[in-house]
Specification:
This protein is an alpha+beta fold. It has one domain. The chain is about 40% helix and about 20% strand. The protein has 3 helices and 4 strands; from the N terminus they run βββααβα.
Length: about 100
């Protein structure tokens, strides 16, 4: 089971998956070429959401779900540090599918 972790030390942000740097997947969507962010609903959090989902559930599903995942999960991450497991990611996607956000 994969574990994703984000840490902020001053202005330096690091995001890892199983202790290795997470690929930002700018090839899928280039929301934030300057890097990841979290704790709100902007472009840096969108890049983080698509990167996490592409790594965890694959590119196609990531493209379908990353905006909702950003809104429900990434925007709620604590400022300094967060941890997320593969199981929690899959549960969040499943829950969003069962309770979609109205247009």
């Amino acid at each position: 089971m994969k574990t994703y972790e984000g840490r902020r030390k001053g202005h330096v942000i690091s995001v890892t998956v199983d202790s290795y740097p997470l690929n930002p997947r700018l090839d899928l969507r280039n929301h934030s070429p300057t890097g990841f962010e979290w704790g709100y609903g902007g472009s840096g959090p969108a890049q983080l959401a698509i990167a996490i989902l592409a790594d965890c559930i694959g590119e196609q599903l990531a493209l379908l779900h990353y905006q909702e995942f950003k809104r429900l999960v990434v925007a709620a991450f604590a400022h300094e540090r967060w941890t997320l497991t593969e199981v929690e990611i899959r549960e969040a996607i499943s829950s969003a599918d069962k309770h979609p956000t109205p247009p």
